[in-house]
Amino acid sequence: MSARQMRLLWLAPVLGLLAHIPATNAAIQQTKGDFQDKFRQLDEVLPTPNVYRNAAGEAGHQYWQQQVDYVINAKLDENKRRIDASENITYHNNSPDTLKYLWIQLDQNKFRPDSMSALTDTFGGNSGRGPATQAANGDSPAKLSLNALRRQQFVADHELGYEIKSVKSGSRDLHHVIVGTLMRIDLTTPLKPGKSVKFAIDYGYNIVEEDAVSARSGYEHFPDDKREGGNDIFLLAQWFPRLAAYTDYEAWTNKEFLGRGEFTLEFGNYDVSMTVPADHIVSATGELQNPKDVLTSTQRDRLEQAKTAKRPVFIVTEEEALENEKAGTDKTKTWRFKADNVRDFAWASSRKFMWDAKGITQDGPQKHVMAMSFYPKEGGDLWKKYSTEAVVHTLDVYNRFTFNYPYPTAQSVNGPVGGMEYPMISFNGPRTELQDDGSRTYSLSEKRFLVGVVIHEVGHNYFPMVVNSDERQWTWMDEGLNSFLDGVAGREWDPKIPWGVEPRDVVGYMKGSSQVPVMTQSDSVLHLGPNAYTKPAVALNILRETILGRELFDFAFKEYAQRWMFKRPTPSDFFRTMEEASGVDLDWFFRGWFYTTDHVDISIDRIYKLRLDTKNPDIDLQRQREAEQDKPLSLTDERNRNEGRKLWVERFEDIKDFYDDNDQYTVTNKDRNKYREFQSKLKPWERDTLERAVREDKNYYVMDFSNLGGLVMPILLEMEFADGTKESMRIPAEIWRRSPKAVSKLIVTDKNKELVSVTVDPRWETADVDVENNYYPRRIIPSRIEAYKDKKSKDRVKMDLMQDIKTELKTEDDAKKGEASNEL
Description:
Blueprint: E1 7-10, H1 25-29, E2 67-77, E3 82-92, E4 99-105, H2 116-119, H3 146-157, E5 163-169, E6 172-173, E7 176-179, E8 182-191, E9 196-206, H4 210-213, E10 218-222, E11 231-236, E12 242-243, E13 246-247, E14 251-252, E15 268-277, E16 281-284, E17 287-288, H5 291-294, H6 297-306, E18 313-316, H7 318-324, E19 332-342, E20 347-350, E21 354-361, E22 368-375, H8 380-401, E23 409-414, E24 419-422, E25 425-428, E26 433-434, E27 440-441, H9 444-459, H10 476-493, H11 507-510, H12 528-548, H13 550-563, H14 571-582, H15 587-595, E28 602-612, H16 617-629, H17 635-642, H18 648-651, H19 658-661, H20 669-680, H21 684-696, E29 699-707, E30 715-721, E31 726-731, E32 742-749, E33 755-760, E34 775-776, H22 801-804, H23 812-823
Parallel strand pairs: 1-28, 2-15, 22-23, 23-25
Antiparallel strand pairs: 2-3, 3-9, 4-8, 4-12, 5-6, 5-9, 7-8, 10-11, 11-20, 13-14, 15-19, 16-20, 17-19, 18-21, 21-22, 24-25, 26-27, 28-29, 29-32, 30-31, 30-33, 33-34
Helix pairs in contact: 8-9, 8-10, 9-10, 10-12, 12-13, 13-14
């Protein structure tokens, strides 16, 4: 700063001197009664620790959870697009409670026209995963999309939801009541703690067309395949009646399934047999138990070869899949899979699938894992190159941050679902485009989508398939944590891909009017993507890179993952573990980011340059005179001088007095005597302190900051000096603990380090929504003006450049002819 800028005196309080500093922002903005303690302990709102969940965020010494085992026999009727099945369920009551009834999830009932989901779907609202309609706007007519009409027509034309044929315990019928997407089964004898009960359910349902209703599973039809009538890909999930969870914190988690809030489930062992057309390939949760019954000897040999291959090996090649999809069969095969200690089971079936696989070796109980992909010809080279390799990459990164993958397979399946996860299997959507020359190409956007969705959905095997959080209640506990980790894995794959976890990716949402707290229940969130995925992922990214640092964060995060492997954590367990394991008070962070709609907006309002008053009149009065002379000259005085006008005292020099040669800054002996008297009263240490400060003549800067967004965060500074150097300073968030609206900070620099500018959060680490008030002095806001035509340019990331590059280059004459035809 130049000497012309405001000069104020910094004076040591111990000397009893005064500093000419205006009232700070804190004094101006803080009014009686409006103080908010942003650092109140979070335990005030968290559940009280108990024998099931202790104060450290660990499972308590009496922690329990139920277990449910399933033996299922299912048949896929390809022509009717229907599942008929029977399941034998063993329910183990590990709780301390006696249970008179059990609650079953019937997720397929969501598609019934009289379901709560259908009846509460609003016109033009934020309804969930399905195609949204558009509400009227002013005088414009209301709009109804063709997708919405298609969904209505499909639901009207098909009988959807479960057909429950029987519920029995042995030969005895069990009384049951269906309540929307739930069913209560009344037990003949109350189930006491430590006991188990066995019962069976026979059921069936018609599979939805996923493209028509926009679901988490369903079938996709390919009418143009050479087989008469075309082919289908079946993705089967939420396909069997499943036990609702019974927990220590909520008892039965029997909230209606509306489509957005997913589910929380019990771990158990599965033995599942699926009878499908004999030419189908099946991918499923678990390990295949009867390969000799369903695979050829060549396919079994390839599968064995894939275990140690450096690159994926085709178990079913593209040529074989193409030949397979030409003709159907009336014969069937039964594929049998087993899966131990999983919370759900899903599968996929189609004659269109090619299948590749690659083995992974790791430490731990599960030493060998098979990464596999299943996809039709429509997947093309995009899937051949990247799907299985992305699976392998995901396990490699996630293992480092959590625990070694505990299951024998990790699968990626291409079908109509854009992205959905289940234990050991995920459904992923991106595809290639068939061109006229027979080639298949894809855009950069599709490539990024495939890599990103595979990492994300396979990553869900860790959260929530092993760390079993309640998705119906707290979506962010699986989506947010997983989005954070998929961002870590993704940037190790290709940092140029926009992973959506950088602080700048959430500022638009955080300053918007439709934000709700992250802790909002899933079905009530207005914008699920930014709320449950982006904001918590960004928060964790900031916590790792800016608040805690990688060493502390990574240790605490891994501790949380390992503590809650195969258990059911709640938000309080996560918050407490991160604090306890890192050793850092994070209540302010979790309260602000997860419980409020505050945003980050720290403004640097003013910087005062202060200079020590020496009390020596020969020094201080001369400094004051220089400061007065540095003020801009009066415009009137300047013009008078330019016109040659003489001052009165210049015209009459014989009439002068003492004050014409001396001013208010003239030093007198009285001033000097007062200074000597001041020095004589100083204690030795006071005199030494003052003399050193005068000798060093350092720069004292007082910086005023305002917290305009309400969310307290560290103040990250980059200071630039007159000598061209820069220095960084990271002020912890606790600076706001007594004055959350505004604070002032004293910064001291050496005499030769003259401050010229300061930037708050120069690397955009904190999700500050307004970076323009982060500069002092304020900068001219950079932007650019671009000449453009009315026709909007395409997003080149979404363009199929693989195809466009084949276009022949036109001559100048051809180009001119094209322009002429366009004008006509």
